[in-house]
Amino acid sequence: MSPAAVLSGPFGTLDHVYVVVAGERLLPVPPVGGAARPAGRPGHWAAAVRELEAAEGPRWVWADTRETYAPLLEQGVRVARCHDLALTEGLLLAHEGRHGEPRSARAAHARLRGLPVPDDRPSAPGTLFAPEPLGAEAVAEVLADQLRRIAALPEPGRFRLLVAAESAGALVADEMAHDGMPWRRDVHDALLTDLLGPRPVHGMRPARLQTLADEVAAAFGRPVNPDSVQQLVKAFKGAGVALKTTRQWELKRIDHPAVTPLLAYKELARLHSAHGWAWADQWVRGGRLRPEYVVGGVVSGRWATSGGGALQIPKVLRRVVLADDGWLLVVADAAQLEPRVLAAMAGDVGLARAAGEIDLYSALARSFGGERDHAKIAMLSAMYGGTSGDASKLLAVMRRRFPKAYQFVEDAAKAGEEGRIVRSWLGRTSPPPSQRWKELVSGPEGSRAARDRGRFTRNFVVQGTAAEWALALLAVLRGRLPEPARLVFFQHDEVMVHCPAELADEVIAAVTEAAAEATRLLFGPTPVRFPMGAVAVESYADAK
DNA sequence: TGTCATTGCGCC
DNA sequence: AAAGGGCGCAATGACA
Fold it and tell me: What domains, with CATH codes, occur in chain A?
């Protein structure tokens, strides 16, 4: 695939740029946050951004999307494209084998100038005063340096796409936090009350949990805190049941009257503590859930959240996510994304042919000469390094039928085991082995440590590329949504759009087109299909 | 009283 | 049905 092939569409090059700070052809932007924000005319620069966006649609360059874009959104200003210096710096540093170095635009600038580099990593002690924002020249210098470094890479076209997609993700993350996902607090409260009893005063157990805790204690004939692993293990031991852990699956194999109320307690206690009333108080405002997304927060390129736990919302709460009156939720997820990504990356003709069908595993099974379930196990084991059950026998079939795909993930695993780094399709780089790992790998448990890292790098190339495809989808879809439809949720391979009911069909079509475009951007012409199942529903619970 | 590691479990 | 890897979060318990 030629690098030029991936440069069309919404990503483009960086030849039309506004650096959002002071200077010629550049916009003055006030320092954001802290006491440095000038009083009086907060809308002034936002209005200028709005005008230039409408007139020229540039790619905005700024040090940090959250700092600059969140205030723009507050002013009702949205932009189509940006280049986030900090995210780009992180990608470049990792590619250059400098994974842990500070990645803020300020740090990048200090490195360029040979000045002391401020430690902006999360582990660094917090600073008392927000630093002055970088000036225009400094931002422009960092940008120029980054463009030079990207141009020197072996696959600059792919990396430019990665930078553009990552930056677009940053825009989406801020927009989703700004718009929020519809969340019916009244439905949530009713559900909690139904399952747990009325909301207790702070620090108390809800009635239903207390009843279950009492039943557990009664089953043991003595007081036991069901939240305490130690107490539970001791209590079971006293009852003649030896347990290593108190995980669900282990408890389920045990015949003891405490098990049933304990499992019920665990499930409900988790709902209460992780997504109960206190959680809603903190994260739901004005009928919207507004979590903080961390773009690139996972080494593989997946997003993380800091607070709000939006990527771990339990399925029982999906019925709390309800469209506004007259609106619908378009929920779409990519079917079997990771095996499709592997098929496209590895250039394995047989696997790509199977991935050209809607049900990849059935197609795989036909080509495999076996059952669908077996084909699925073989595929997952290849991607994740599984060893359980029939895996090795099935992997042998996999190796024979799909040699290039098999070799692709084997190579990634071997690199990991040998302490080398691996890269995703667009060039996101895995962390190098830690010092601890290097010590471990030459010790008595060395082969175990090597295998563990092999599984990580094996998974990294697939998960990382899947994350890139999803980011590209998000970026394209964002640009195709009709007003006033809004992206309100994104979870690895799933998106949700909130839109007026009459626009739902248009939004579903946009999702389908965006999937095709994302596929083209990453892989060029490929027989592999990436089907997105998109449905319009009133409640998230009805999406599956 | 605070910090840190561990355990367990939710999501993909 | 699950397996694999990746996360965030809450509670406990050890320790300072």
Answer: 3-179 (3.30.420), 185-280 (1.20.1060.10), 292-336+468-543 (3.30.70.370), 338-467 (1.10.150.20)
Predicted pLDDT at A174: 93
Residue-wise pLDDT tens digits, A435-470: 878 888 888 778 888 888 888 899 899 999 999 999
A251's tokens: 């408890």
Instruction: State whether the beta carbon of A229 lies below 7 angstroms from any atom of strand C.
Output: yes
Predicted pLDDT at A43: 56
Average pLDDT, chain A: 83
Nucleotides of B under 7 A from a protein CB: 7-12
CA distance A212 to A106: 54
Which residue has 């999937």 as its token pair?
Answer: A515
Query: What tokens does A415 get?
Result: 């690199």
The confidence score (pLDDT) of residue A260 equals 87
Q: Is the CB of A211 under 7 A from strand B?
A: no
Contact (Cβ atoms closer than 8 angstroms) between residue A507 and residue A481: yes
| β-pair type (A327-334, A494-500) | antiparallel
Q: Is the CB of A180 under 7 A from strand C?
A: no
Chain A residues 144 to 173 with C-beta below 7 Å from nucleic strand C: none
Q: What is the pLDDT of residue A273?
A: 85
User: Any long-range contacts for A170-173 (C-beta under 8 Å, 24+ apart)?
Assistant: A170/A65, A170/A66, A170/A69, A170/A82, A170/A84, A170/A87, A170/A295, A171/A65, A171/A69, A171/A79, A171/A82, A171/A478, A172/A474, A172/A475, A172/A478, A172/A487, A172/A490, A173/A65, A173/A293, A173/A294, A173/A295, A173/A303
Distance A271 CA to C13 C1' (A): 23
Q: Write out residues in chain A with pLDDT < 50, as ranges.
A: 1-16, 21-26, 28-42, 125-129
What b/e string do you get for A410-442 counting C-beta neighbours within 10 Å, with b at 16 or more?
bebbbbbbeeebbbbbbbbbbebbeeebeebbe
A303 touches strand C (CB under 7 A): no
Q: Residue A190's pLDDT is what?
A: 93
Q: Is the CB of A442 under 7 A from strand C?
A: no
Mapped onto helix, strand or coil, the DSSP state of residue A316 is: helix
User: Tens digits of per-residue pLDDT, A488-534?
Assistant: 999 888 999 999 999 999 999 999 999 999 999 999 999 999 999 89
